[in-house]
TrEMBL record:
It holds the Pfam family APH. One of its GO terms (molecular function) is ATP binding. Signal peptide: none annotated. This is Kinase-like domain-containing protein. InterPro entries: AGP_Transferase (IPR051678), Aminoglycoside_PTrfase (IPR002575), Kinase-like_dom_sf (IPR011009), Prot_kinase_dom (IPR000719). Keywords: Kinase, Transferase. It comes from Mycena metata. Residues 35-342 form the Protein kinase domain.
Amino acid sequence: MAMLHPDDEKFAQQEVLSHTSISALFNERLGLVPTRITSSENQGAFHKVYFVSLEQADGRPWSGRDVVLRIARKTIEKIKTENEMAMLAVLRASGIPVPEVVFFCSDPDNPVGYEYNCLERIPYPSLVETWVNLLPPQLDRVLDQHVDIFIKLFSINVPRNHGSLTLSGNSGPVLEETMWSLPDIHRYFNAEPYNLRDETFATLNPTGFYTTWPDYISAFLKTYHHIVSIHPVVNFLRDILEPLQRLIEVLDTAEAPWVQRLRNSPALRGRLFHRDFHFGNILSDREGTIKGIIDWEFAGIGVSFAKRSSMMRNCVGAHPQLLPLGFTKRTKKRCWELKAKP
């Protein structure tokens, strides 16, 4: 994929929906009228987020509650929304603290004009705001909660194929933030000066789920081979097409001993991962008790090293001088427990 384009960032900085449209949506979906609609200046790259307070009304679920409405920028249609909603259902059933789904729509052609989802608002700050004020015993507890959550994630009964989840809980197509999205495809393939108008999401990205790690890697290599063979900007790479094709064939035939080892390695079997597990997505109280984990849109089933934003990266990367003595040793001890989880 391309790096995030300035035009992509503009989406969440504009008023994607009017307050009138938002009120009509809530009236239609819940029979409730918002009493307050706000949005933060800090927005992500994939959604416009609105914070909505709902009116009190007897007998109506979600009456008087605060919720979060997320309007999806058009990037990866249907798969991303349905994967996140399926993940949240599985996670809540397993005891992971995640927001409850109020309603959603994964049809990009719905009357709103965008895919959307509405989630429970968890009324706690993120660890980004609170962790620097935690005492050493509280930091230890944050670490313990992190490891316990990862161990629980590894234990959730999901299909072990490399990919996403469907709403029915089955294996869905692979989903990665690095895939070519719809704006990228138009900008760098379909439009002038490239005029590669036959290229689509399906021709430029893997579109299935994969039973083994080599199958997953091969699927991505095939898309890279295709792009190098057609795109004038990367024609300087065409000398690698022949060896790349040979590698793909080796992975697909699975006759080489090293490929067989990769296919059968327990360390490379699929596990459920958040993939963006940083302090900004972890909500806690002022004592460091984790109350919610948000932003599961690119969660999926993958190998253990697919996880990102580790405990140490969060802490050491920001303020290493604030870590209590012995914290690094404790982190290593607990992470060995994580590594030993089958």
